[in-house]
Fold this protein.
Amino acid sequence: MTRFIHDQFAKDYLEQLLTPYGEVQAARRVAGEVREIDVYFIPKPQPNNIPETLGLLGQLVTTPSLLEPFRKAASATEICDCLLKLLEVRGDLQRQANRNKTRILESDLPKLWILTPTASAQLLSGFGANPKVGYLPGIYFMPEYLRTAIVAIHQLPSISKTLWLRIIGRGNVQKQAIDELEALTPDNAFRKAALELLYNLQQNLQVTQNQDEEDRELLMRLAPLYQQDREQAKQQGIQQGERLVVENLLKVRFGEIDNELQAIIEPLLTLPPEEFTPLLLQLSREELIDRFS
């Protein structure tokens, strides 16, 4: 049960991060037996559309891509199934081109990225997957025409460039990635999206009966982070409410808030509501500006 919860988290996570930069087709069905691609991503046509802050994940999906994440190490049978999905997608593209009497460009053919926590030397050898010059350790490419690579997440170096892939690892690798995620500045858009999805994962795991030790450790790691995030959100809500009170009182007493009144709002908010409220009601405009400007 928990495996499916983690798989869904990985799909939702990749979809959330990539949606602003192209078309994401999650759980896209392909021909033949009922098979679904976990994430099919087609980048927008603009050059350099994907930001550098997505690191290695952004580099992998600069062209149409099939992303197949695995919670546990992908088996040979599962990798063969992924290859079959890729070939069926290529066949569908070829049929469309034939109907439209057009040629398929090499850049239109999707690449398959198999995201697995680990990959044994025997497995890699069996698929002829090897490292490639210019790529980080942990990425193994199959022969050229297969357009497929196996990304062994736990072999990736622990650098900021690989963070967004290590988040969907497991065990200590994932926990370290969560530590790095927490350390990012709060205004990081990817940080917020990743944390919200991790919280969803936390909620889903909490209601399952058959948690394993790894799930319990992940829940313990996420619990204080979730509580801290909720407290910060609550505090921000309080601050926004107090600002609204100040602005409304200024408008009621003096009409529009001009630059001089705008300048005293922040100093006023350093006081608790029980102090700034009577001042706003009793002092004149000039007295307020003299006192807080």
